[in-house]
Amino acid sequence: MRDAPAGGSLNVRLGPWSVRLAPRALLVSLLLLLAGLLVTVAALSTGEFTVPVPDIIGALFGQGTPVAELIVGKLRAPRVVTGLLVGAAFGMGGAIFQSLTRNPLGSPDFIGFTAGASTGGIIAVVAGGSALTIAGGALAGCVVTAVLVYALAYRGGVQGYRLVLVGIGANALLLAVNSYILTRANINDAATAGAWLTGSLSGRGWEHARPVALALLVLLPLCAYISRPMRMIEMGDDAAKAMGVRVEAVRAAAIAAGVLLTGVATAAAGPVIFVAMAAPQLARRLTRSPGVTLASSALMGAVLLTAADLAAQRLLAPTQLPVGVLTAAIGGTYLVLLLRKDRH
Amino acid sequence: MASLETSGSRLTGTGLTLAYDQRVVATGLSVAIPDESFTVIIGPNACGKSTLLRALARMLKPKAGAVHLDGSVITSLPSKEVARRLGLLPQSSIVPDGITVADLVARGRYPHQKLMRQWSKADEAAVDEAMRATDVTELADRIVDELSGGQRQRVWLAMALAQETPILLLDEPTTFLDISHQIEVLDLCAELHEAGRTMVAVLHDLNQACRYATHLIVMKAGRILAEGDPTEIVTPELVREVFDLRCEIIQDPQSGTPLIVPEARRRVPATAAF
Amino acid sequence: MRPAEDTAADTAAAGAGQAVSTTRAGASDERAARARPPVLVAGLVVTIALLALVAMASVALGARSVSFSTVIDAFLAPNGSNDHTVIRELRVPRTLLGLGVGATLGLAGALMQSLTRNPLADPGLLGVNEGAALGVTLALGVFGLSDPTVYIWFAFGGAALASAIVYALASANRSGSSPVRLALAGVAFGMVCTAVASAILRMDSQTFDRMRFWLAGSLAGQTADTLVRLAPFMVAGLVLGLMLARPLNTLALGDDAGKALGVAVNRTRILTGVAVTLLCGAATAAAGPLWFVGLIVPHAVRALVGPDQRWVLPYSALAAPVLLLGADVAGRLIARPGEVQVGIVWAIVGAPIFILLARRKRVAAL
User: Fold this and answer.
1) Could A228 and B113 be called an inter-chain contact, meaning their C-beta atoms sit closer than 8 Å?
2) CA-nearest residue of chain B to A221?
3) Would you call C303 exposed, middle or buried from its count of C-beta atoms within 10 A (0-12, 13-18, 19+)?
């Protein structure tokens, strides 16, 4: 048996089945899980009312004091869980689009999908919709944008670069529509819509977490299934086709999955930008895997978003920053990092 | 009708009309790739040679006509099934960031794998064999980006070999390589052919085509002008018709195949000669 | 144009294809310019006439209906009436601002497209205007500097930094920079700048209220005084930019060919960068970050006058204000008695045109 190459693979075989695993990616995933757990515990425990770590479990399962139960179970836990799920959805959505566009900046934030979700969301805000309507509006906006971008970019197939360019055009258009709505709305609606546009996890309850969880549950198997053919498409359409990949079908499925992930995440937390851009590349750098990997990107997204949300709540306490401000800072830092790191 | 022609050809195209968008490159093109041949397709720029190869490899859907593989219309077969019988080395592929040689070659096993059968013993054996044949075993742990052009082309070829297909199509495998690497790649193709594979390559260099091909297809402006053993079909008239070049044809002193020597406009003065 | 077999390799062969097409463009340069100067000069005159027409419309039309004779009177016999004040204090400065901003952005876009040999270069798309806007936001929102001659330096700083970062981002990859990569890098960096600027504004509701229209791109709300202070920078940028036509023409053949033909490549690049910074910084300080003006106008101009920068640059500088003022007037008329910011009008009209350009195979694959 050949020696496993550096950062290579761990082959597990059982009868006719075999799985190929990258030890480094496994390790990184475990560490990310651990980091997510730490952030979760910190978010549940700290704040204006400190709940000691041992009491958290009790408070979650109805064994703690009523105050602790209210704060941990009703306020902090749904927020953290929403953050984890939304972060994972953004991370995975970003990884899908970066793979499709073969570009570390090819994130849904820049090619119109997040902007489309925003448009749907603020139309619902201005129309005086409930939280549920706003979420529905965001998801609908994202899906409609995606269908239009896909249709406009389609010329006997959707090449990555055309998807990017058409998406950039759609992005500009939708951002303008968003500012138009903001300038035309009455001042209260404009303020609400403006706040929603920054992206925030504050006041998120289980009703926000549930749809994201459901979407992840449904889309994870699909993503696992298409992740291998997607990796082939990264080598070029011809190379992938020659290997028996049905390129356009895989691409359409990947776009659908990426759009739904981005859409439900935006519906739950508003357009928190830059998580989808940064998470897949940060994960890739840690795992040193060629191309983006969906699982570690999802974990990285979850950790990034919850950590950013924790920082947004505690950094300038009692002032609460919207998490979108923090992720924008992460985005800026990340771009500078990208400048340095790719130069080797 | 197709089945009649395919007696000696697993891969055939009949009545092909090939076009990019609205621009028609070829009409009514029919071709049969002889089994276990080393077929080379040649012709001037824009004659449609790569287009034909792409159609044979189902990269391009013909506007009319059909490509048959083993008697079935190629697009009616499951894509992975085709990929286990017919491989293609495309003209340009993208090296994923930071991938190692071993990982890239391993990707050639995709058509043989399933979600729950990602890395069988057969996969491992095929990858080892492909790397040995292309002489990239020592490079296994290197990052593909950091290799030279010739090494990289051998790695791509290794990936196509790992696919273990009886038919292998190569789209200009020698472009961007210097002459020694060109010969190296073509010698490797000849070895693969001798080992029993059917090879089909699009080449630019007529002399290289004559030397390596057992079956030559000469194209011009979307039509096949001549086809057969290079020693039988390559004549000064053909070269003039296809490439608009006056030449003399001699025997290649190394291989005995036809060697095209373009007509000279000036000669070295006698005194300066050796 | 290119042989059929290359179509498959579109994206990969981007660089090569581009070199081919620019060489061809460069070769026809001289001929096109020499063959048709009378037509081109006449075209310039027509453009100037159009510009005058739009400028008049911009003074006469708006949310408030003013009769034409009142407009004339406002100049010849101002009587201090409400109508006359609106025209003299608001519409005239606004029109002049539109002329200045249009000319600067049109020229900046043409310069950027020529320098980067990238048909998709645009000051807004590539994040330069957003960088300048972040600079202005910092100056106004954080440091409280409200003098235009002071905060414009923040705009220049932001624009220069943005150009450098975006260019580095796009080429920080082994396969070099391509139009698509450059556009993505610009959009990403621009969105970071916009997010940071919005965050700054959100912390201070007073500044937010004052600047949110500016941030959407607007010609309204600048006083004649601001205009006077910003004008010298715009003029400097315009003059410098127009002087670069000749070396840029030669550089269109490629850096090496340019060098071989005796162009100081680095100096031309740096001077073009300075001109772009001046133009974008001044335009953004005046009207906020505007998209697509610098993208679409040079495209249309090239289609009409050919690739010679000696014609492309002045035409772009003259045609852009026609369209910018036209959009501004339209924005005032469609939502009476309110108005739609010119930046929004441009994005809504410009984005579909951008998508059309992107769908064209040759542009997208370059």
Assistant:
1) yes
2) B115
3) exposed
**With a cut of 0.85, is the ipTM above it?**
no
Q: Is the peptide bond before A104 cis (omega within 30 degrees of 0)?
A: no
Domain residue spans in chain C?
10-365
Contacting residues of B for C359, CB less than 8 Å apart: none
pLDDT digits (tens, 9 = 90+) for C56-104: 888 888 767 777 778 787 778 777 777 787 787 788 888 999 999 999 9
CB contact under 8 A, A328 and C192: yes
Question: What's the number of domains chain B is made of?
Answer: 1
Residue A11's DSSP bridge partners are A20
pLDDT at A38 over 80: yes
Whether pLDDT at B260 is above 70: yes
Structural domain spans, chain A: 20-341
The helix/strand/coil state of B248 is strand
C4 → closest Cβ in B51, B91, B92:
B51
The CATH number of the domain holding residue B38 is 3.40.50.300
Give the pLDDT confidence of B218-246 residue by residue, as tens digits: 999 999 999 999 999 999 999 999 999 99
**Cβ atoms within 10 Å, residue B249:** 15
The confidence band for C179, taking pLDDT boundaries of 50, 70 and 90, is confident
Q: Which of B21, B80, B96 has the CB atom closest to A234's CB atom? A: B96
Is there a contact between C216 and A183 if contact means CB atoms under 8 Å apart?
A: yes
Of residues A20, A231, A239, nearest to B119 (C-beta): A20
Whether the CB of C48 is below 8 Å from some CB of chain A: the reply is: no
Nearest to B92 among C4, C9, C361 (CB): C9
Residue A180 · residue C344 · CB < 8 Å: yes
Determine the residue among C5, C10, C174, C361 to mutate to test chain B binding: the one whose Cβ has the most chain B Cβ atoms within 10 Å.
Answer: C5
Q: Do B94 and C13 touch (CB under 8 A)?
A: no
Best B45, B52, B169 member to test C by mutation, with max C CBs in 10 Å, is: B45
**Higher local confidence (pLDDT), C318 or C34:** C318
| Total H helices, total E strands in chain C | 17, 0
Q: For the domain covering C10-365, report its CATH number.
A: 1.10.3470.10
Tell me the H-state helices in C204-308.
205-215, 224-243, 245-251, 255-260, 265-287, 293-305
SS3 B41: strand
Structural fold of domain A20-341: ABC transporter involved in vitamin B12 uptake, BtuC (1.10.3470)
Torsion sign over Cα A264, A268, A269, A275 = negative
| Owning domain of residue B11 | 2-272
Whether A5 has its CB under 8 Å from any CB of chain B: the answer is: yes
- For A10, other C-beta atoms within 10 Å of its C-beta total 14
Note the pTM of the prediction, 2 decimals.
0.85
User: Any CB–CB contact under 8 A between B77 and chain C?
Assistant: no
Q: Does C292 touch chain A (CB under 8 A)?
A: yes
Other CB atoms within 10 A of residue A253 CB:
18
